[in-house]
Every structure is written in structure tokens, then in C-alpha cells.
Amino acid sequence: MEHEELLTKRKGKIAFLYLNRPEKFNALNISLLNKINSALKAISKDDKIRVIILTGIGEKAFAAGADISEFSEFKSKEAMELSKKGKEKVFDFIEEFSKPVIAAINGYALGGGLELALSCDIRIASNNALMGFPETSLGTIPGYGGTYRLAEIAGKGIAKEMILTCRKISAKEALEIGLISYLTEKNELLDKATEVANQIMMNSPNAINSAIKAINYSGRDSKKNCSEIESKYFSKCFDHPEFKKGVSAFLNKRKPNF
Fold this sequence. Notes:
By secondary structure, this protein is an alpha/beta fold. It folds into two domains: about 5-200, 2-enoyl-CoA Hydratase, Chain A, domain 1, CATH 3.90.226; about 205-250. Helices cover about 45% and strands about 15% of the residues. The chain is built from ten helices and ten strands. The protein has helices at about 30-45, 75-95, 110-120, 145-155, 155-165, 170-175, 190-200, 205-215, 225-235, 240-250, and strands at about 5-10, 15-20, 50-55, 60-65, 100-105, 110, 120-125, 130, 170, 180-185. The strands form two sheets. A six-stranded mixed sheet has the order 1-2-3-5-7-10, with helices on both faces. The chain has a four-stranded mixed sheet with strand order 4-6-8-9. The longest helix has 20 residues, at about 75-95. The chain is globular and about 60 Å long.
């Protein structure tokens, strides 16, 4: 049986995606990126799945970067294509996905692996996690959105310091700088991710999708345009059945069932 680079598991309304290249510390090769894209496309059409949890197989790595062996001989034209296609198929695709994606970081999240986690809506890490961008030590820079996503989440100063020095940070420091939302014991990571997923699923799927779109827009345009985008998604919610359901439940002092 062919080794599967991505394992999928469903538990209720949650889809678990497991990066499954433990012998390579779950390094992201082109084949694995394509499989992530295909899995997410299938999930987007399944109304019964409400949240995705993305993690790595094994105890050592979430994803320890991109698979360097695939592009070590690339020239600039090929590198440009690699970066653009990777963002289109996976990194930007996850950030703009219609359902929340939680990264459960269970070890090394380096280079492309950290970029993958940064693309997710929420990041949770176990206490053995280690994060960083080693790209400048290889003569390049992050190419899957790491430069601007890290700056947006943790600030330009931290982004420059981490990328320019290649310094790796612990999960504890990642929590302190806002790079992750929760820090857990290693054996409690997926339980915490599931708990957060269950909290999300108590709320309106349409409102959650609208919030993701509005938040993603923030920081990438003028305050005025961000305000207009927020008002656009805010107002659209009022025409959705889930708004009426939520308001009715509130007025009748009961919990909505979305």
C-alpha cells in the first residue's frame, strides 16, 4: 500500500488533517501541498464539517519546513512559480477558507511549517514546540507568506528579528508574543484543539465565515476601506437565516442551535 502523506479523520463535525511524513519531519513537498488542497476542497463541499484541525504525525514535528531537496536546483523563474502556486493552493487558500482552521503544533514548526501554521485562523502548541524561520541561513527568505503574516500577528520588529537572525522560539515565547493562543502539555494538544473547535461550533457558521473575511482584510488596506468591508459583512449577516435564529434564541433566553 502506498504511503499516504496526508491522513484525514472525521470526528463529529470536526475534520482532522494529519501531515504524515514523519521520516522527513513532515516536510512540505509539492505532493503533500497538493493533497492538502484536495482535502480542503472536499471539506468545503461538506456542510456537516464545521472546523478543521491540522497537525503532524509523530512526536517531533508539526512540519519542519519545505522539502529543500525539491527546489535546491531551482532558478528565480521556477522559484517564483513555486511560491505563487504554494500560496494559491495551500497558504492563501487556508487563510481565506470558508471554515475555521486550527493548527495544533506538536513539535518543530520551521520555515514552510511555520508559514502553514500562520495561515491558520488559530494556533495551539504543545510545550515541546519550536518555531522559527531558518531561510536566511540558506540564502533565501520565507516565500509562502511568512514575512507579512508573522509581521501582522507578532509585529514587524519581532518578524525582522526572527527572520534576520533565524532564531527559534519556544512555545512559551510564542504564547507571550501572541503567535499562539494556547500552550498545552504534549498529550493534551488535540484535546485543547477539539475544545476550541467545539466553542467555535456553538456559533453561526455564516457569521464565523464573515468574521474571518473581515479580519483577514484588516491591516492590508486603509482604515477607511477596512471599515467599509466590516460594515459590508456585518450588514449581510442580517439577511441570513442564522441571524434570525441567533437573535430569537437570545430574546427567548435559550441557546441557539446552529
